[in-house]
Structures are given as structure tokens and as C-alpha cells.
């Protein structure tokens, strides 16, 4: 009998990983700590519990990246999508689900699978050495005992407990007649290093108006449990810095030194907002130091006051909340295995993807890769042109390790299309071109995966 794969955590990622591995004929032991150990957010003992909204977001697989992720998971026989579809609620173009019926159905299908054993109990340290294939899918609320054990294996700064998200902008939406590429004091060995930042200049009036808008914007409040979480001082929201004094930002992330505006070299900007490259492709830039608790609507209007960002579109907006995640670009190999201990594979939100769907998708891939390994195969990884391949590539190397923050799926993670429709009008056509390319490539990958028949169960 094939040795089992041990999966720790029966959330979105762990449930999908267990299903995929078992469907490929490999036995699984799924360890879930609830109901013996609780998290502050989960309310039930059900597997794949949705802790907050009941939405899987857009179901548009022709022009939306998360809709494409739905499509890829359906093509791969994903349990989370099958049960989501079975328990869908009316929600316009989105896929919303009846959370209790959905979680009950996932729990039942996994419990009834002949190759899956569910064990309730916390794994409160590193798994025993004789578990030779493990998937850790313990999510943003990984139990402290396990988090500490992972820290001891990987080092101090390998695990973040706060998700201090600076907004991320699509590079193509920045107005380069106002912004320019330059690193402060032209630092760097190569031309690429010396031009690693995009800079947006502000005059005094623009800066003062920006500070007023920051102070006036609507903010979300911290939850009680967030107030107790450490490292808050290290990632102060930009509006809190502004509250400490109107000049604070000019002495901090917006300092106007070491940079010359080539569009107007004789005028020294009063303040400069810097955007740092966020992926190897150079399609995404994060606004440095702009983690924020402003509400989403307020963020867009405040950030579009920045010269050069008037028409910016955002791959993600900023935020700060509790979230345990690995520095995956540094710690994981291309197959999501911990370099320091390759018998441990990670999946889900703990790898630095964000969202129910993204987490389930990484579970799907981890389950398949672990099963293939157990069966003595090493299949190709999904191409970067697919939504799952793009996410995988981002977390295992595409993202900058120094600034790594959790990421939703978006077309900025995909290799660019080359020549094609540009501008706002062309946006829909570009999206369609991304999804068409992804679907062709995903179908090839799935059919080449080559592990024989899926066992029929459930
Ligand atoms: C408060 C909050 C609100 C959120 N709201 C949304 C939202 O509205 N929409 C959205 O898309 N995403 C949301 N997220 C993100 C969401 O958690 C993830 O998208 C998704 O649930 C992550 O899936 P996962 O499988 O990685 O983790 P989870 O679904 O959290 O599953 C991890 C599982 O591991 C178990 N576990 C933890 N430690 C151990 C251990 N040591 N031993 C055994 N079991 C363990 C936990 O009990 C849990 O069941 C939210 C997250 C939080 C914390």
C-alpha cells in the first residue's frame, strides 16, 4: 500500500489537496485541529469553512483572472468548485455560496472517500520524520505552536504575522509624462537597479491637498484581536504617520532627496512618491510605505491625486490585518516544498496567496504534485500563462522576497501578451486574450499530467 500523504489543515487548500491526491489514488490523512482547538474566526468544525464573506468573486472566465481560476479548477475536477457550484446563490456575475451547505458537502465528500482518513487534532510542532510527504495548509490563522516550529526551522524573518499591504498598481496605467524611473541617488550596479523605482513628484500645494485627503478619508477600524498582535509599530498605516504631523511623510517615505525629475530638472519637487517594482516581469509596482486602513473607495480617490497616478488601476488596494504567511520566494522550491526540509510542502494562504479561491487553487496543485511524487512521477509544472501557473510562479520566485506580501490572482502576474490592444478600450480584449491563452495551455497541462484514471469516489 502506498504511504499516505499527511495534510495539516482542513480549510480551503487542505480540503482540495486531499481530494486531488485521493482522486489520483494516493491515501491521505487529513489533520484538522477544530473543534479541539479553535481560531478566532472559524465558527464550526466543518471542513472548508468560509470565515468571512460567502463569495468566490467573479465567475467570468473570459475576462476576469479569478473567474479563470474557477475555470481551471473545474477542468481539474476540483471539489471546492464542484461543491461551490452545487450550493451557489444568486449573485449577479459573482459566485456566492450557501456557506453551511457548502462546507457540509465538502466535509461529507471527503469523509466518504475510501482513501481519505480525517483525524481531528492540532499538529503542535514539526511533523514526525516518518511522515515522508506532508502538505501544510494551515492558513492565515496557523496555530502558534506550529508557527513557532516552522520559524525554528526557517529563521526569524521567514514568517510574517501582519499583512501590511501597500497598494499595487499596474505599470501600464502610470502616466510616464509625469513619473520617471530612477533609484534614489542612482544606487545600484546595473542600469536595471539604477532605474528600479517609478517616481511621482508633488509640489507644495499637491502635497498639502494630499495630506488633507489622507486625514479626512474614511478608515476601517482594527478588530480587537488585531490590536493585540505584535509588530504594529513597524508597519504604521500612512494616514497614522500623517496624523503625527503634516511633515512626517516628507521626512519618511515621501522624502524628495536623491532624485531628479527629468521632465522638469530645474524644479525640486516638494515631495516624491516612490513605486517599487513588485514582480520580475515589471508589470506591477507597489507604492512604497503606503500600507493603509483607508476604505477601498477612499484609497482609489486619494491615490489618484498623486501626479502620474491620475488614471492608475490597482492590482490590489492596501490594508493591514493579521495573517501568518511564509516568505515563499525565499523558502520554497518551484514545487512548493520547503528547501530546508523538502518532505514539507506548503499550500494555501500560508504560502502568500490571498483569498478563498487562490488558496483552494494552490491546494489543488499541491495535492496533485504530492500525489505524483508518491507515485514516482515528476510532472511538468503548469505554465506561467495559466492562472494557477502564474500564482505558483509569483510565490516561488517571481515576487521580490524583500517586500513579499500576499497576492490575489490578477493579469499582472501573467507574462505579457506582446503586441495587442492597448489603453482603456483594449482592456476587455486583452483580458480575453489572456484567458484564451491560459485555457489552451491549462488543457494541455491537465491532459499531459498523465497519472491515469481518477478513481471514482463520492
Ligand atoms: C478574518 C478573516 C477574514 C477573511 N475574509 C475573507 C473573505 O471574505 N474572502 C476571501 O476570499 N478570503 C478571506 N480571508 C482569507 C481566507 O482565510 C483565506 O482566503 C482562506 O480561508 C485560506 O484558506 P486556507 O486553506 O489557506 O486556510 P483556512 O481556510 O483558514 O484553513 C486552515 C485550516 O487549518 C487549521 N489549522 C491551523 N493550524 C493547525 C494545526 N496546527 N493543526 C491542525 N489544523 C490546523 C485551521 O483550523 C483551518 O481549518 C479571510 C481571512 C481571515 C483571517
Structure description:
Strands 6-2-1-7-17-16 form a six-stranded mixed β-sheet, with helices on one face. Strands 10-11-12-13-9-14 form a six-stranded antiparallel β-sheet. With 458 residues, the chain is an alpha+beta fold. It has two domains: 5-160 and 322-448, FAD/NAD(P)-binding domain, CATH 3.50.50; 168-317, Elongation Factor Tu (Ef-tu), domain 3 (Beta Barrel), CATH 2.40.30. It has helices spanning 12-23, 65-75, 79-86, 99-112, 144-154, 191-194, 204-216, 224-227, 238-243, 248-251, 296-303, 328-331, 356-374, 387-398, 427-448, and strands at residues 5-8, 28-32, 55-58, 88-89, 94-97, 116-120, 134-136, 159-165, 168-170, 180-181, 197-202, 271-277, 284-287, 314-316, 319-326, 337-338, 341-346. The protein has 15 helices and 17 strands. The chain binds flavin-adenine dinucleotide (FAD). Flavin-adenine dinucleotide binds at residues 8-14, 31-34, 39, 41-42, 51-53, 122-123, 137-143, 146, 348-350, 355-356, 359.
Could you give the topology of this structure?
Blueprint: E1 5-8, H1 12-23, E2 28-32, E3 55-58, H2 65-75, H3 79-86, E4 88-89, E5 94-97, H4 99-112, E6 116-120, E7 134-136, H5 144-154, E8 159-165, E9 168-170, E10 180-181, H6 191-194, E11 197-202, H7 204-216, H8 224-227, H9 238-243, H10 248-251, E12 271-277, E13 284-287, H11 296-303, E14 314-316, E15 319-326, H12 328-331, E16 337-338, E17 341-346, H13 356-374, H14 387-398, H15 427-448
Parallel strand pairs: 1-2, 1-7, 2-6, 7-17
Antiparallel strand pairs: 3-5, 4-5, 8-15, 9-13, 9-14, 10-11, 11-12, 12-13, 16-17
Helix pairs in contact: 1-13, 2-13, 2-15, 3-4
The structure holds flavin-adenine dinucleotide.
Family: Belongs to the MnmG family. TrmFO subfamily.
EC number: 2.1.1.74
Protein name: Methylenetetrahydrofolate--tRNA-(uracil-5-)-methyltransferase TrmFO
Amino acid at each position: 500500500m502506498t504511504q499516505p500523504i499527511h495534510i495539516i489543515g482542513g480549510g480551503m487548500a487542505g480540503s482540495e489537496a486531499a481530494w486531488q491526491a485521493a482522486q489520483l489514488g494516493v491515501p491521505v490523512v487529513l489533520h484538522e485541529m477544530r473543534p479541539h482547538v479553535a481560531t478566532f474566526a472559524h465558527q464550526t468544525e466543518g471542513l472548508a469553512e468560509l470565515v468571512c464573506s460567502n463569495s468566490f468573486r467573479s465567475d467570468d472566465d473570459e475576462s476576469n483572472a479569478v473567474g479563470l481560476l474557477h475555470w481551471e479548477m473545474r477542468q481539474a475536477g476540483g471539489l471546492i468548485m464542484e461543491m461551490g457550484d452545487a450550493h451557489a446563490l444568486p449573485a449577479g456575475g459573482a459566485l456566492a455560496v450557501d456557506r453551511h451547505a457548502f462546507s457540509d458537502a465538502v466535509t461529507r465528500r471527503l469523509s466518504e472517500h475510501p482513501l481519505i482518513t480525517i483525524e481531528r487534532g492540532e499538529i503542535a510542532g514539526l511533523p514526525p520524520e516518518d511522515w515522508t510527504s506532508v502538505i501544510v495548509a494551515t492558513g492565515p490563522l496557523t496555530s502558534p505552536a506550529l508557527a513557532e516550529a516552522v520559524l525554528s526551522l526557517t529563521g526569524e524573518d521567514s514568517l510574517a504575522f501582519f499583512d501590511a499591504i501597500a497598494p499595487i498598481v499596474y505599470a501600464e496605467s502610470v502616466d510616464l509624462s509625469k513619473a520617471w524611473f530612477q533609484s534614489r541617488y542612482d544606487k545600484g550596479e546595473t542600469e536595471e537597479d539604477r532605474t528600479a523605482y517609478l517616481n511621482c513628484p508633488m509640489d507644495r500645494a499637491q502635497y498639502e491637498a494630499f495630506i488633507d485627503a489622507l486625514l479626512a478619508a474614511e478608515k476601517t477600524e482594527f478588530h480587537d484581536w488585531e490590536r493585540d498582535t505584535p509588530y504594529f509599530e513597524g508597519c504604521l498605516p500612512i494616514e497614522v504617520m500623517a496624523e503625527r504631523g503634516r511633515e512626517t511623510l516628507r521626512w519618511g517615505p515621501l522624502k524628495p532627496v536623491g532624485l531628479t525629475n527629468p521632465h522638469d530638472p530645474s524644479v525640486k519637487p516638494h515631495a516624491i512618491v516612490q513605486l517599487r517594482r513588485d514582480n520580475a516581469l515589471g508589470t506591477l509596482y507597489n507604492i512604497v510605505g503606503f500600507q493603509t486602513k483607508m476604505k477601498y473607495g477612499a484609497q482609489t480617490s486619494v491615490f489618484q491625486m498623486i501626479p502620474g497616478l491620475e488614471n492608475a488601476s490597482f492590482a490590489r488596494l492596501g490594508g493591514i490585518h493579521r495573517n501568518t504567511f511564509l516568505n515563499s520566494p525565499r523558502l520554497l522550491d518551484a514545487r512548493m516544498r520547503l528547501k530546508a526540509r523538502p518532505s514539507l510542502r506548503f499550500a494555501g494562504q500560508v504560502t502568500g496567496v490571498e483569498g478563498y479561491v487562490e488558496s483552494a487553487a494552490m491546494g489543488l496543485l499541491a495535492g496533485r504534485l504530492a500525489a505524483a511524487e508518491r507515485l514516482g512521477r515528476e510532472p511538468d509544472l503548469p505554465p506561467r500563462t495559466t492562472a494557477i501557473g502564474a500564482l505558483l510562479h509569483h510565490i516561488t520566485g517571481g515576487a521580490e522576497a524583500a517586500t513579499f506580501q500576499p497576492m490575489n490572482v490578477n493579469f499582472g502576474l501573467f507574462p505579457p501578451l506582446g503586441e495587442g490592444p492597448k489603453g482603456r478600450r483594449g482592456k476587455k480584449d486583452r483580458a480575453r486574450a489572456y484567458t484564451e491563452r491560459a485555457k489552451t495551455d491549462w488543457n494541455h497541462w491537465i491532459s499531459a499530467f498523465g497519472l491515469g484514471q481518477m478513481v471514482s469516489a463520492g
